[in-house]
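R.M. (postdoc): so does anyone remember the format we settled on? I'll just put the structure tokens first.
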């Protein structure tokens, strides 16, 4: 079991996140692209600045759909938001397995579950400057994949750009 802390930078033209370990060392960072039509963000391992995943939002869809790919362009996951009334739910179809993300009514407490068990639990802080999460990863393998999913979920559920409907993202609007 590993614990991480995700914090979003507030004043930035693009979405920027840093992921800290239990000792408050930055282990991953994520940067959005300015004027990206598909709302692209890249996740890096901070120590080596090695790209790990690219997150892209599908431009034309009724409900949000995201694609996660490796730096060489191989798609490893598709995340689709379900239409629900009381709880947030997303489905993940990935090369690492099938998962479901469920959140509470306020979209602050989440679990990522396989068919057999909860794999990740994360909680958004109620009072913080920018979006801030505590992430507990129960699976020892594919930790970077699950961190990328948490960034994707924050973008999917807490981004205000959906009000414009244009699909063009000009930066962190939170």
């Amino acid at each position: 079991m590993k614990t991480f802390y995700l914090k979003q930078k507030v004043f930035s033209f693009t979405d920027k996140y840093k992921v800290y370990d239990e000792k408050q060392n930055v282990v991953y960072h994520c940067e959005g692209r300015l004027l990206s039509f598909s709302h692209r963000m890249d996740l890096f391992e901070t120590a080596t600045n090695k790209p790990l995943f690219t997150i892209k939002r599908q431009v034309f869809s009724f409900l949000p759909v995201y694609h996660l790919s490796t730096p060489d362009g191989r798609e490893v996951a598709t995340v689709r938001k379900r239409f629900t009334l009381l709880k947030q739910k997303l489905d993940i179809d990935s090369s690492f397995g099938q998962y479901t993300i469920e959140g509470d009514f306020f979209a602050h407490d989440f679990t990522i579950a396989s068919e057999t068990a909860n794999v990740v639990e994360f909680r958004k802080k109620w009072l913080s400057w920018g979006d801030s999460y505590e992430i507990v990863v129960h699976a020892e393998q594919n930790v970077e994949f699950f961190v990328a999913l948490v960034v994707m979920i924050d973008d999917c559920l807490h981004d205000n750009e959906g009000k414009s409907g244009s699909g063009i993202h000009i930066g962190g609007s939170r």
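R.M.: ...and that's the designed sequence above, right after the tokens. Also worth knowing: The radius of gyration is 15 Å. The chain is about 10% helix and 45% strand.
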